[in-house]
Amino acid sequence: GAVVSQHPSRVICKSGTSVKIECRSLDFQATTMFWYRQFPKQSLMLMATSNEGSKATYEQGVEKDKFLINHASLTLSTLTVTSAHPEDSSFYICSARFSSGNPEFFGPGTRLTVL
Amino acid sequence: GDSVTQMEGPVTLSEEAFLTINCTYTATGYPSLFWYVQYPGEGLQLLLKATKADDKGSNKGFEATYRKETTSFHLEKGSVQVSDSAVYFCAMDSGNTGKLIFGQGTTLQVKP
User: Fold this and answer.
1) What do you get for the CA distance between the two ends of chain A, in Å?
2) Confidence category of residue B29, pLDDT binned at 50, 70, 90
3) How far is Cα B66 from Cα B50, in angstroms, rounded to an integer?
4) With an 8 Å Cβ cutoff, are B43 and A109 in contact?
5) CB pairs under 8 A between A and B
6) What does the DSSP 8-state code read for residue A65?
7) B51 in helix, strand or coil?
8) B78 neighbors B18 (Cβ within 8 angstroms)
9) Using CA atoms, how far apart are residues B10 and A21, in angstroms rounded to an integer?
10) Mutation for B interface: A9, A46, A62, A104, most B CBs within 10 A
11) What confidence tens digit (pLDDT) does each residue in B95-108 have?
12) What's the whole-number mean pLDDT along residues A66-94?
């Protein structure tokens, strides 16, 4: 099956710093990648959709200047949480899709803790 | 609007019991339907899918049938194991937006 990796799996940072999370599709080219946020015991909340080579589309209520998304290639997307605060602590999950109509394949997630 | 509703958990079963997790959807078009499973501390894994009415998705002993008449996609397994303990998410692919819409998730706990 298709494999999506995320790095790092866990990160702890100080308030005010920026954190970058990488999402890679290892064995397929992903035209679209998605970034989700998951709070404890809750479902996934879609943050943004990114297509390779174009700007990400953010969901309502998600600050695009705070959550910077770059989809530089068909196998890599990055999410940068800028000036992180404790309320940004969460589980961030990316997914990748080959093309519309195909299922999304999810990464293992990144646990971000902001002190 | 489009939405997915799952039965609330947690669902607690003994090993080898029969499992049903209900899922219903509301959609304006004809979505594809999915079940994802999330083990503790991990991301989601695709468990099974169905793309049109009356399709049955199956994997690892789990199965679900796309029922257009009842707008349902209930997950079933005949005999659960402790290793099946996880959170299960029902989802649909909204054809109009290309985005996945998730249910709230159902936690399954299987006891020996």
Assistant:
1) 37
2) confident
3) 6
4) yes
5) 48
6) T
7) coil
8) yes
9) 31
10) A104
11) 666 788 899 999 99
12) 94
Q: pLDDT tens, A4-51?
A: 999 999 999 999 999 999 999 998 898 899 999 988 777 888 999 998
Contact criterion met (CB < 8 Å) for B42 and A109: yes
CB A110 within 8 A of CB A21: yes
The 10 Å CB-count burial string (b at 16+, else e) for B22-53 is: bbbbebeeebbbbbbbbeeebbbbbbbbbeee
Taking residue B65's Cβ as centre, other Cβ atoms within 10 Å add up to 17
Contact B24, B31 (CB under 8 A): no
Extract the tokens encoding B62.
Answer: 């789990």
How far is residue A76's CA from residue A110's CA, in Å, rounded to a whole number?
A: 15
Can you tell me the distance from the alpha carbon of B74 to that of B18, in angstroms, rounded to the nearest whole number?
13
CB distance B80 to B15 below 8 Å: yes
